[in-house]
Amino acid sequence: MSAKTYAYYSGCSGSGTSKEYDLSTRALCAALGITLADVPDWSCCGSTPAHMVDHALSAALSARNLAQSEQLGLDDFVTPCPSCLKNTHNAIEQMRDPGFRKEVDRLTMRPLARKHRAFSVLQLIYEEVTPEGLALKIKKPLHGLKLAAYYGCLLTRPGRSMRFDDEENPVSMDRLLEAAGAGMLPFPLKVECCGGSFGIPRGDVVARLSGRILELACSMGADALVVACPLCQMNLDLRQKQIRSAVRLNFHLPVFYYTQLLGLALGLPEDQILLDKLVTDPKPALAKIEIIRPPDVPAQPAKEVPA
Amino acid sequence: MEHVQLGRGDTDFIRAVETESGQKVSRCYQCGNCTAGCPMSFTYDFTVSRIMRLIQLGQKNTVLSSKAVWMCASCESCSTRCPNHIEVARILDVCRHMSRRAGFGGARNVRLFADAFLQSVRWHGQSHELGLMAVYKLLSMRLFDDLTLAPDMLLKNKLPFKPHRIKGRDEVAGIFRRYAQGRGLHGGGKK
């Protein structure tokens, strides 16, 4: 593994709604020997609202963070959040156009000096540590746990721009979790939209789209969903109660960050992976670990547990 | 399906969409792949392939006043599956920019949420979830939406009351200020 240091951008949700993602990401990277250096005094990337208003404004908000990362003398910018990644990635890509770059420089008044690369922490772990490398470090395998990995829309799409994994059938999380001993279901909705930032202005949209994801994972017999995006996690977990009443189905499906489960498998303590931050109780799913089913017995579909 | 009375094509509009998005809309041959995969179609007045056709035909007002350009979730399904590698989601984004600048209301709450979010970034340098929710609720008067989420968020200590103000917040505010002042190349404005 490379002994390189990466500029780390946790993103706004990492200090609020997805604290557990930020902390478990840091702990996991430390355990895997990846050094992260926080981008000093970072600002918001503008998320979806910024690119909905203007691409130069959005790129300028990301460019300020890249400029801050230059203080560390680092070119490789990693973030756990796919939405932050998308904005930063697009900024770098669009700034190859000199006219666009000039406009961004006018907005930030801080022209970038280095050639930056942005990628997800997932990509970093998948490509630098690799599933094989990870498997050697597993202390508490996740045997007996059946999981559906849900990647969301932004992590790999479109492939010609994101250049990571497969755009329609990504497998990186599946492979890593398999290496940690979990059983991965072939989940057909792994890149279907959860409704993203429409949660607040149009809760009905999220109920419908996220509802479909939860419903299918349940009917496939998943013990839990695993995600890599704070917004997906919030829609699927925090809003699960809302969704249950909107779609009139009674599912209780925990939604883990992949970093929490990998951390668990590496034997990291609870205060580093913060499983208690999840809204849908993960204990019934976690209780299945170590119960190794006979290989021939087909999986039972998850029972609909009353609220 | 809504019928459109085609008006005279506005070629300036076609050119503006192409310039701002960096995409050639004439490359769309209406295969409908984008529409087939679009998860938001059920909220649209025109499906995404119809929006592409309307742009090709220069139907500026129909496109910019459509619900579709505001309800696109930018999930990139269309861009991923376009056989001609058109960045369809970027085109919808650009239409949304134009719709906003031209003063079409769009999907009101979607617009107000974006405003509230960016206001929060402008004030603090980072977005502050509780604060932006409050601003959004006041702007939209949707005071009681999502209140049921509050107990879980508070219980899990996921909703910091105080915003984290970064040291460089004036610098971030400066980006917004300069953006609002002269929108040179891409901000465009009055065309």
How is this structure best described in words?
The complex is a heterodimer of chains A (307) and B (191). Chain A contains 14 helices and eight strands. The N and C termini of chain A lie far apart (46 Å). Chain A has two domains: 5-121, Glutathione S-transferase Yfyf (Class Pi), Chain A, domain 2, CATH 1.20.1050; 131-286, Rossmann fold. Chain A is an alpha/beta fold and 307 residues long. In chain A, the strands form two sheets. In chain A, strands 2-1-3-4 form a four-stranded parallel beta sheet, with helices on both faces. In chain A, 45% of the residues lie in helices and 10% in strands. Chain B is mainly α and 191 residues long. The chains are: A alpha/beta (307), B mainly alpha (191). Chains A and B meet through helix 2, helix 3, helix 5 and helix 9 of A and helix 6, helix 7, helix 8, helix 9 and helix 11 of B.
Write the layout of secondary structure elements.
The complex is a heterodimer of chains A (307) and B (191).
Chain A: E1 5-8, H1 19-31, E2 35-38, H2 47-53, H3 55-70, E3 76-79, H4 82-94, H5 98-108, E4 117-120, H6 121-135, E5 146-150, H7 159-162, H8 172-179, E6 183-184, H9 203-219, E7 224-227, H10 230-238, H11 240-247, E8 255-257, H12 258-265, H13 270-273, H14 283-286
Parallel strand pairs in A: 1-2, 1-3, 3-4, 5-6, 5-7, 7-8
Chain B: H1 11-21, H2 33-37, H3 48-56, H4 60-64, H5 68-71, H6 77-81, H7 88-101, H8 108-124, H9 129-140, H10 150-155, H11 169-181
Helix pairs in contact in B: 1-7, 8-9, 8-11
